[in-house]
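Today's session is about reading a structure prediction critically. Students often jump straight to the picture, but the first step is always the sequence itself: look for stretches that repeat, for charged clusters, for runs of hydrophobic residues. Only then move on to the predicted structure, which in these notes is written as discrete structure tokens rather than atom positions. Here is the chain we will use throughout the hour.
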Amino acid sequence: MTPQHLTMLTGASRGMGLAMARQLLGPGRHLLCISRQVNDALTAEATALGAPLTQWSQDLADTTGAANRLQAFLESQPASTWTSATLINNAGVIPRIGPLDHCPPDDLANALRVGLEAPMQLTAAFLRATTAWVDAGWRGPRKVLNISSGLGRSAMAAQAPYCAAKAGMDHFTRCSALDEAQRDHGARLVSLAPGVIDTDMQVQLRAGDPAAFPDRSRFVELQRQGQLTSPTEAAARVLAFLQRADFGEQPVADVRG
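Below is the predicted structure for this chain, in token form.
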């Protein structure tokens, strides 16, 4: 069997995640998509292209279950099968928009599990399994790309859970990058802000209650002025960043430079 690139992508069933999945499809790559729902259209596209695709129906709020499943999958793979291994943590959740005390406890917990704990658990599983490959002599590049947000770096009223999850994503990426820098053939990690994208999340923000969400008008204006990037264009920029020769030199970055 000819070695292939292995790419694992969360949140691949819609929005920028689906756009990335479509652009990653190809005969030389095995794409593993991890989402709550399987996308049948993506399966059909992969079949037409002769592109290896696996889709898992997996609730990322079950963080331990998701991580154990990924680790078991990677441990079952002969390292020689792959020329590279990449994990893209893309999934995220915006709970009820409003002050923190207005957010239902279950929604708050879910946002932090999906937006922060799941990326940490999956990254740990990925590093654990692929470090074993390296220890056995495998020398393919390993990358972790965490899809962050400008809201992880700038506070916004009514967005505490989402902002906190993205800020935590940025900082755990910094920490893990320091760990990997101490290892021979360590993985490279980046937490990347992808810009403002025209997705369901933007629809959710524009639909927020102005009384509870002081910045709602900002998001309405972004759409009105045509300043939102399409999911397809945003995905292309993110994947181009992933291929940069200097990927990982700055563990927290913005696709806009």
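Discussion point for the tutorial: The mean pLDDT is 93.
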